[in-house]
Design brief:
The protein has 23 helices and 22 strands. By secondary structure, the chain is an alpha/beta fold. It folds into 2 domains: 39-165 and 246-294, 2-enoyl-CoA Hydratase, Chain A, domain 1 (Alpha-Beta Complex); 307-420 and 448-582, 2-enoyl-CoA Hydratase, Chain A, domain 1, CATH 3.90.226. It starts with a helix and ends in an 8-residue tail after the last strand.
């Protein structure tokens, strides 16, 4: 017995030492990788006649996960880029005399339209300094071309092309699937346009949903086409013809119609860049990465103690701790309170990129922000999505900024509860119950919703909806009647939200920072970000856990229909979080 105890203790110690050693190994490797930098970088010592190289083939996020270095080292996830880092690097390059221009690669972007426009506006500002921006791509997706169109010149691989086709939104419907397999989603909702639940009730798109989607993507396309038109000197009408007929798909056609400037292999393009800088083909092109420009915290103003806090609210709103990609009540209430208490923080900018989620947690966060606003100015900057619960937490701010292509609004409430009774009956499973009271069972996935439960849930949804509208009415200083007219779950672009009073101004996160500084009556400031989430061993072990990757692989292999029901069943574990203020559908715009 003692032998077995000693053996297992030694085995456990060996395994623990191996895991800790592995973690330390990856930390060292990550540090070395960071020090070495990219193969195209010129190091942190920027030389004369350099070019900023922006290779945007990585996920671009408002806030990057604290465990990212480990995930990248283990090959679990790609490295990501923080949006503010890119914008800051472009601003630094604009004023750095050693940087002569920007080389842009935006073939395949992994981000949202709002973030792309923010980068595009920064590049437009960079060009105003008299410096050049050139773009090279093997094949441009529509989003990648929209960004590249700001460049002075666009070069494309001889075997490439340009995707310029207009916008489309695809919504999957599950009614026939439910009837066929016995999986059913019980739905309780409020809001004419709350179409998150429509796919469970019908197999075709409703007139209301088709209307709001059509208006939404038309508004987005208007922004995209007008900016491409201005940069490329092609009329919007002609761009619509090109998109309708897919005229830019082949690179030769794209060149003939003026969508691109030159057909070129990358090696020839590099020589063109060298010539532009007065270099010979044999000379080395000095390319600087955005990390090089940010090295040593070059954007920080020395001697300035005043700060503006950026609170990054990114991801769904859920019960729990929360992190860089999920908005949980615990970490985020603490972040809001810490920013409000800090003597150095003079104003708060809430950066929202969220489709919403739990109605209860949304209200808890709204209350924390309302208390913070009593102590210092609160400004909201909306990213790709700030809808439903994402708008709920934003509506009480002193000032709200959104990008023209932000998706926002969606003032509506719903609950979805998966029901497997039909499937259980088909495979011979029968649930029996013993009750002390008529409605004691509450919700069970193996029984249809009782009238008592449905009535209770509907009352809860009506209460949340009225509360939501009241928050918007008080925060935006508009009548409840006017809120109702733009509510009912309908989504809007930033342009439309400006017109109907849901936001104050169209602008970027930098515009929001300037407004916060003005409200706080400060001229110079440094930035500090929240929530300050420290990566601990639980986070690292979670990343390294082989079962989590297996679970991810299994989920990714499931048909879309099964994944929808699996995720819905997981989200209904806590009764108080079944009522959702969430964007009205999985918005897939392509």
């Amino acid at each position: 017995m003692n032998f077995l105890r000693t053996f297992f203790a030694s085995l456990l110690g060996t395994i623990t030492a191996f895991i800790v050693g592995g973690i330390l190994f990856f930390m060292v490797i990550g540090g070395i990788a960071s020090a070495v930098g990219s193969d195209e970088g010129a190091g942190t010592m920027i030389q004369d006649n350099s070019i900023l190289s922006l290779k945007l083939d990585l996920p671009i996020l408002d806030n990057t996960p604290g465990t990212e270095d480990f995930q990248v080292s283990l090959g679990l996830d790609p490295e990501s880029v923080k949006l503010m880092d890119l914008i800051t690097a472009i601003e630094l390059a604009k004023t750095n005399d050693k940087i002569k221009g920007i080389h842009l690669r935006s073939d395949y972007l992994m981000t949202g339209w709002s973030q792309v426009k923010t980068i595009r506006d920064a590049l437009e500002s960079f060009k105003s300094s008299g410096k050049f921006v050139t773009a090279y791509g093997d094949f441009y997706t529509q989003m990648g071309y929209y960004l590249a169109s700001v460049s002075d010149s666009i070069y494309v691989n001889p075997n490439g092309g340009v995707e310029l086709k207009g916008l489309a939104s695809e919504v999957l419907y599950y009614k026939d699937f439910e009837d066929e397999y016995g999986f059913k989603m019980e739905v309780i909702r409020h809001g004419k346009y709350k179409s998150a639940v429509e796919p469970y009730l019908s197999n075709t798109m409703s007139k209301d949903n088709r209307e709001q989607l059509g208006v939404l993507i038309s508004s987005l396309w208007e922004t995209i086409s007008s900016e491409i038109s201005e940069s490329r000197n092609i009329s919007v009408q002609r761009l619509d013809e090109i998109a309708t007929n897919l005229e830019a798909n082949l690179v030769e056609n794209a060149f003939k119609i003026g969508v691109i400037d030159q057909i070129s292999y990358k090696s020839d393009y590099i020589n063109i860049l060298k010539s532009r800088l007065g270099l010979e083909p044999s000379d080395r092109l000095k390319l600087v990465s955005y990390e090089d420009l940010l090295a040593g915290n070059a954007a920080r103003i020395k001697g300035v103690r005043d700060q503006i806090a950026i609170i990054y609210a990114q991801g769904p709103i859920l019960f729990g701790e929360g992190n860089e990609t999920q908005i949980g009540d615990k970490n985020f209430v603490k972040a809001i309170e810490d920013a409000a208490k800090s003597k150095r923080v003079k104003a708060i900018v809430l950066r929202v990129d969220s489709p919403g989620g739990s109605a209860l947690i949304s209200d808890i966060l709204w209350k924390a922000l309302d208390e913070a606003k009593k102590k210092k100015p609160l400004v909201v900057s909306m990213g790709n999505v700030a809808a439903s619960g994402g708008y709920y937490i934003a509506c009480g701010a002193d000032k709200i900024f959104a990008d023209p292509m932000t998706i926002t609004g969606s003032i509506g409430v719903f609950a979805t509860l998966p029901n497997f009774k039909g499937f259980a009956d088909n495979i011979g499973i029968n649930a029996e119950h013993v009750l002390t009271h008529k409605n004691a069972l509450g919700y069970s996935p193996f029984e249809p919703l009782s009238e008592g439960f449905r009535k209770s849930a509907r009352e809860g949804i009506e209460f949340v909806y009225e509360t939501f509208k009241r928050r918007v009415s008080e925060g935006r200083n508009i009548s409840l009647e006017d809120v109702e007219a733009i509510a009912q779950g309908r989504v809007w672009t930033g342009v439309q939200a400006k017109e109907n009073g849901l936001i104050d101004e169209l602008g970027s996160i930098n515009d929001a920072l300037d407004a916060a500084a003005s409200l706080a009556e400060i001229e110079e400031f440094n930035l500090t970000s929240y929530p300050k989430i420290e990566t601990d061993f639980d986070d690292i072990f979670g990343v390294m856990n082989p079962f989590s990757s297996i679970e991810t692989e299994i989920k990714s292999a499931l048909p879309q229909e099964f994944k929808i029901f699996l995720e819905a069943s997981q989200s209904t574990e806590n009764k108080e979080h079944r009522i959702q203020t969430r964007i009205p559908y999985s918005l897939n715009i392509k």
